[in-house]
Amino acid sequence: MKNNRFIIFAGLLAIIAAVFYFTTNVDQVEDKETKMKVAFVYLTNPGDHGWTYAHEVGRQQVQEHFGDKVETSYVENVPEGPDATRVIRELAQNGNDMIFTTSFGYMEPTLKVAKEFPNIKFDHITGYMRAENMATGNIRFYEGRYVQGVVAGLTTKSNKIGYVAAFPIPEVIQGINSFAQGLKSVNKNATISVVWANTWYDPVKEGDAAKVLIAEGADVLAQHTDSPAMLQTAEKAGVYGFGQSSDMHEFAPSAQLFASVNNWGPYYIAQIQKAMDGSWTTGEGPDHRAGNTWKGLSEDFLVLTDFKNMPSNVAKAAQEARDGIANGSINIFSGPMMDNEGNQILASGEVLDDGGLWAMNYYVDGVIGKIPN
Question: Starting at the edge strand that comes first in sequence, how are the strands of the sheet with 134-139 ordered?
């Protein structure tokens, strides 16, 4: 009798164990089937307080939005070039369903690996090359720089503006020229001097470039590089500047007039959701070109921080410029527009389209010097 009871009890335990094992493994299979793996490739590390930090904020927003449905990871400090190809390929081999590469110089490495892994979705930030499984996304950074130009033109006493730039690619040139358009809209006498740092992130080079510009008389500085070094240099010298990619106020509380903040979260969330529901595409579409998202102030992809260290009339002009761009009443690149050598770029009534923006290889009136090769 005791043996029978033991056999029955043991049988019940075995059944319970089998049910638990089956249920647990079914849950694991379902998790494996439903959880999407998404990887990000970073040029620097999130501690740069600029470009990469903004992308990391976006990744964290993805994780918060999707919860257990998405598993995210990132690789930091990946140089542009062969190393990028290796890292992107490894991420593809490791089972990621979608890979975001977050620097212009990752464009060709991303394209190369995308062709090797046609079933994985690749999304390159700031580039223009696409494939059947490779989309591109960008923010209209130049819109914020027009507002910076307005503030600089109303703030400067020397009428000399310094600009620290990374590389002479169209995206950077757009920003310089947009800044100049904003500057000229309020101050015809001010000019912009550009120092090319030839790096996206090098605090020493960025700081040195800022020192050169200040020594030449610049009392307002702008940048298209990624660290707070320029602003920190401005703070020490008692001049003004603008934050880049992220809010840099804590590094230069007396110098930062405002920052143009890159808000990547909405883009990443939208792209991942499209991948989940099957609507992700790199083909033609109404949003300029589907698979080529390029949005700015009106969609809050670009966000301006509070206007500080300036009189109320300057803050008012900045807000009006920001709102005008967002609602379409201000078209930054509209004619008449001349380059800095006196050649007409746009006649009165003409407007530069997106193709013209990406073909920009000249300085507009108000910018000193020539673009390096």
Answer: 70-75, 36-41, 98-101, 121-125, 134-139, 292-295
Per-residue CA distances from 335 to 23, 90, 326, 339, 347 (Å): 68, 48, 19, 11, 5
Give the lowest-confidence range in 10-19, 93-102, 140-149. 10-19
Identify the bridge partners of residue 294 per DSSP, sorted by sequence position: 138
Same structural domain for residues 57 and 198?
Answer: no
- pTM of the model as a whole: 0.87
Provide the domain limits for residue 206: 141-261+303-358
Number of domains present in the structure of the chain: 2
**Whether residue 315 sits in one domain with residue 185:** yes
Task: State how far the Cα of 288 lies from the Cα of 354, in Å rounded to an integer.
Answer: 9
Is 178 found in the same domain as 230? yes
Q: Which helix (H) or strand (E) holds 242?
A: strand 240-245
pLDDT at residue number 48: 84
pLDDT on residue 373: 83
Cβ neighbour number for residue 294 with a 10 Å cutoff? 18
Contact assessment for residue 153 and residue 321, using Cβ atoms and an 8 Å cutoff = no
Strand partners, 98: 38, 121
Q: What count of other Cβ atoms lies within 10 Å of the Cβ of residue 12?
A: 10
